[in-house]
Amino acid sequence: MNGTLFMKKTDHSVFIFVPAAGLWTDTSRLTSGSYGYFWSTSIDPSDTAYAYFLYVGSGSADSGSRSRYNGLSIRPIKTQPKAVDLGLPSGTKWADRNVGANSATDEGLYFAWGETTGYTNAAARNTALGTTDGFG
Q1: Residue 22: inside a domain, yes or no?
Q2: Whole-prediction pTM value?
């Protein structure tokens, strides 16, 4: 899986790998292998149907706002399975993998914003929820 390494400024042996897992819209997976998309905790105040996200890939990182129904990854800031201290001024420690991933290079699960259950793809979400709209 392609992705991006984020290293501690003072010790490059300390890092997290962010897989380029792409995202799901309706029933289509987009930009897998090129970009990783990760939900923030914030709703866009100019349109509450949208929420903010971070994306990384192709040597850049930026943020934006997408429909909350899209399926994006979640990278927790917590102590399990392994907390990685990148030396950020905030002291924030990042998990070494996405939610639902078996390893740091695994893409893990996709979530619509605010959902607590993740899915491997749009078809799995359709089956679980009895819908036909995927992440749309």
Answers
A1: yes
A2: 0.80
Q: What is the CA radius of gyration of the chain?
A: 15
Inside any domain, residue 21 = yes
Backbone angle region of 100, left / alpha / beta, with phi > 0 → left and psi within -120 to 50 → alpha: left
Q: Would you state the structure tokens that stand for residue 117, as one six-digit string? A: 């259950």
* pLDDT given at position 70: 92
**How many distinct helices (H) and strands (E) make up the chain?**
1, 9
Give the contacts of 69 (CB within 8 A, at least 6 positions apart): 112, 113, 133, 135, 136
- Is the model's pLDDT at 129 over the cut of 80? yes
Closest CA to 135 of 114, 116, 110, 117: 110
- The token pair at 106 is 């695994």
- Structural domain containing residue 27: 3-129
